[in-house]
From TrEMBL:
This is YhbY family RNA-binding protein. Residues 1-98 form the CRM domain. The keyword Kinase does not apply. Keywords: RNA-binding. It comes from Companilactobacillus keshanensis.
Amino acid sequence: MIIKGKKNRYLRSQAATMKPLIQVGHEGISENLLNQLELLINKNELIKVSLLQNTMVEPSDLVEALAEFDEKIVHIQTIGSKMVFYKKAPKIKYRKYSNELENIQ
């Protein structure tokens, strides 16, 4: 799934003031990291991930790993070592950004 245009711009603007919820360090991409990321994205819909200086992980590696782990997770933006991901929340009570995206044309 790819989000383009005004919807992408909306999500980037919402993520601009967010603090990273997950940091990828020297351990790299592990099953535990992917599971934690999935839990957070299912509750928050929009998350920011930070790659620490001591990691050997490239941003493209994380995007590929998440695409294989869950194809519904969408990569929104990468700026330096910060990455933003979006996934529509499975539970209605956690849908904040997806409700707004439906109103954007």
